[in-house]
User: What shape does this take?
Amino acid sequence: MSNKGRDSAQRFLAIVVIIAMMMTMSIPAPVVVFFAIVIYFVWRAVERSEQQQIEGIFQFYVLANEILRDEDRRWFGYEIVEVIDRGEEILRMMKDPPPLVYFALGALYKRAGNMSAAADYLSYVFESESADESRITVPSPELRYYVKTLRRLEREPAEKPQIMAAVRSLERMRQTRGARLLAEAREGLSEAKRAITARASRALLEEPKKPHPEALETAESAHREPAPPPPISELLRDMYDEDQKSV
Assistant: This one.
C-alpha cells in the first residue's frame, strides 16, 4: 500500500473509532450519523486544501525550472513576473517554506533584472543557517506534508515525472550555479548603484550655476544707461542764484 493509501486508511480508522465511542455513549443513531457526515466532509476539505497547497509548490518548481534551465530562450517580462508571484504567494502561505522555493525565487528575480531581490533571496539560501534543511527540526504541518509528498515522489518518480525532473534540475542548479548567481546579483547591484551615483554627479555638473545677487546688481548697474543732463534753463538758474549770493 502506498503512503497516500496508508494515510487515508488511518484517517478512516480514526473516524470509525470516534463513531464507535459515540455509540457506546448511547448517543442516538441520527446524531452519530450527522457527526460522521460532518467529520467526513471536514476531513475531505482539509485534505483537499493541503493537496492544493502542496501541488502549488511543485507546479511553481515546474514553471521556474522551465524559465531558468535555458538561458538563451527569450521570455516576456510578464511571464517571469507571473511565476515570481506564484513563489511569493507560497512564502505568504507557509510559515517555513522549503529553501528550494527561496532559491528559485532568487534566480527568477535575477533573470528578471531585479538584482536587489535576487541578492536578498540567494544570500538567505547560501548564508543563513535557517535555510539549511538539516537544521529544520520543528516543521509546520504544511512543511511536513510537503516533505512527505516529496519523499513519496522520490520513491515513485514515475507518478509525477515532470515534477521530479523540475525538482532535480533546480537542486542541481542550486548546487552548481547558486554561488555564481549570488555573486553576479551582487555585482549587478553594485553596478546599478555606481550608475546612479554617476548620473547624479553628472546632473550636478551640468546644472547651470545661478549668479550671486550682488553680482546681478553690479552687472545691472554696469549696463544701466547714464542719466540725461539737466535742462539748460536749470543750469542758467543755478548760475544766476550763485551770482546773487556772491553780490
